[in-house]
Write a structure and sequence with these properties.
Radius of gyration: 29 Å
Order of helices and strands: HHHHHHHHH
Shape: elongated
Structural class: mainly alpha
Number of helices: 9
Helix content: 55-70%
Distance between the termini: 74 Å
């Protein structure tokens, strides 16, 4: 509520009025599509409030000035813009390629994703052996052994090698540098 003696800027009041109207309309559109009014639409990561705010930005870019009094109300046009924007987002590739999975389906998908592709399973041991032959530092060779055993995170490498995570980071940087040098020698 405004303090005594302070008036609300008419432009702010107009934007607030239009935003509330567009938010209500966007919530109805989301409900028609099967989403709760406060839901984030999967694939596009937008809520009804986001749709309304984005539409206000588009209206402003398009020439709408809330400070200028007009005979025509912008809300019907804004509602049509929200509707079209929501339809466009739902037709986007991001929305179409997103799927909702229950926990069992997700676990199956997670198992499939963690398996290495056949080419990587064949090439990685060969690359590691070539690198080991050229390395002189035993810690670097131990790092490659841990990689072969399946270590993935810096913490796993640190536990395998008996060093800190920071030392693992430095070791990785050294190995990247040396692998670039080795590539230049080939």
């Amino acid at each position: 509520m405004a303090e005594a003696g302070r008036k609300t800027d008419p432009a702010v009041a107009e934007v607030t009025r239009v935003y509330k109207a567009l938010t209500r309309f966007a919530q109805k559109e989301c409900a028609k599509a099967g989403y709760r009014p406060d839901a984030i639409v999967p694939g596009i990561s937008k809520t009804a409030e986001d749709l309304a705010a984005d539409t206000i930005v588009k209206l402003t870019i398009g020439g709408w000035d809330p400070a200028v009094a007009r005979e025509k109300d912008i809300v019907p046009y804004g509602c049509e813009a929200v509707k079209n924007y929501f339809i466009d987002l739902r037709r986007s590739a991001a929305y179409k390629t997103t799927m909702s999975l229950d926990s069992e389906e997700f676990e199956k998908l997670k198992e499939v994703r963690t398996e290495k592709p056949p080419q990587q399973r064949i090439e990685l041991p060969q690359i590691i052996e070539k690198m080991k032959a050229r390395l002189t530092d035993e810690l670097e060779k131990a790092y490659l052994d841990a990689l072969e055993k399946g270590a993935k995170t810096r913490k796993e490498f640190a536990d395998d090698l008996g060093i800190t995570v920071e030392e693992v980071t430095k070791l990785q940087q050294r190995l990247v540098y040396k692998s670039d040098k080795m590539r230049d020698l080939l």
